[in-house]
């Protein structure tokens, strides 16, 4: 398969597009704004980038979440044979968590966390810090046990779906669909809840995710933003997303059904922090077009 080289374009800023609806159908491309980790590994004659490795810091507090992270890491490293994907550019390896507090970012890595983040309407959160327009320098993925401890969401398939998706947002992947249909990828909004709680649909990546990664990464950067094998430096604190949703910045876009939002924040060091929010069914249904940060999310 021929892959066209993707150039490191500076993406135009999307200003004032709050509440613009996503397309509900599977799209030809689903990169997240062209964001990607800079990497100097070569591209071979078939157009595939030689793999580089991203560290996933395991700050998870339960064996169950650790198992879900492990499965997600393995799935993203090894495309199913049926996908007929020649290779994948981004390999993951799980390392000891390095977040100092509250899932703070650590340069060159994705830190993965769980916690009882409260009755705030979100199941999962993925943030990336961007410099130079498109290069990811650090990321975090958080799972909210306030909801995952409730009957509706507390099942292995829903947990796997959200873990697989939040981690992959930090690779630079967007959703394939946000309308609730299953494209059988964790990058969709099929809900493994209720009568579908036992379904393993949409708990793993599909072939299109790997095709997309190969497109996003089919170029050689002059620098690298993934951490080398040893020490990593903690990030400047002011790029971190905190439990306060106001720290997410401005709402840039939201799906028509209200389940998926992207926020953007400009930081004092010149970088941007972008955050994908995976809202609960309840938060989305209550008012699909609202900025769910400003609603009360009472316990059901
Ligand atoms: Zn690049
Ligand atoms: Zn998402």
From TrEMBL:
Keyword list, A-Z: Signal
Signal among keywords: yes
Protein name: Peptidase M10 metallopeptidase domain-containing protein
Signal peptide: 1-28
GO MF annotation list: metallopeptidase activity
Classification of source organism: Bacteria, Pseudomonadati, Pseudomonadota, Betaproteobacteria, Neisseriales
Native species: Pseudogulbenkiania subflava DSM 22618
Keyword Lipid biosynthesis: no
């Amino acid at each position: 398969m021929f892959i066209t080289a993707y150039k490191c374009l500076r993406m135009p800023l999307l200003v004032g597009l709050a509440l613009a609806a996503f397309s509900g159908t599977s799209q030809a491309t689903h990169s997240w704004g062209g964001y990607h980790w800079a990497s100097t590994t070569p591209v071979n004659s078939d157009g595939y980038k030689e793999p580089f490795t991203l560290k996933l810091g395991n700050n998870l507090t339960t064996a169950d979440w650790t198992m879900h992270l492990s499965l997600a890491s393995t799935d993203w490293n090894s495309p199913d044979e049926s996908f007929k994907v020649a290779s994948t550019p981004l390999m993951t390896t799980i390392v000891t968590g390095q977040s100092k507090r509250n899932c703070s970012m650590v340069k060159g890595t994705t830190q993965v966390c769980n916690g009882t983040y409260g009755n705030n309407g979100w199941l999962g959160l993925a943030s990336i810090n961007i410099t130079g327009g498109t290069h990811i320098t650090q990321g975090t993925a958080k799972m909210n046990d306030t909801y995952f401890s409730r009957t509706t969401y507390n099942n292995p398939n829903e947990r796997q779906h959200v873990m697989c998706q939040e981690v992959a947002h930090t690779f630079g992947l967007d959703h394939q669909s946000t309308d609730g249909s299953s494209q059988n990828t964790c990058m969709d909004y099929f809900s493994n809840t209720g009568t579908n709680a036992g379904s393993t649909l949409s708990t793993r990546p599909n072939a299109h995710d790997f095709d997309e990664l190969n497109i996003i990464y089919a170029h050689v950067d002059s620098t690298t933003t993934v951490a080398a094998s040893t020490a990593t430096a903690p990030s400047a604190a002011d790029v971190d997303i905190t439990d306060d949703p106001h720290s997410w910045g401005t709402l840039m876009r939201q799906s028509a059904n209200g389940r998926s939002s992207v926020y953007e924040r400009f930081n004092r060091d010149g970088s941007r922090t972008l955050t994908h929010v995976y809202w609960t069914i309840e938060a989305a249904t209550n008012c699909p077009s609202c900025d769910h940060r400003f609603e009360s999310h009472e316990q059901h």
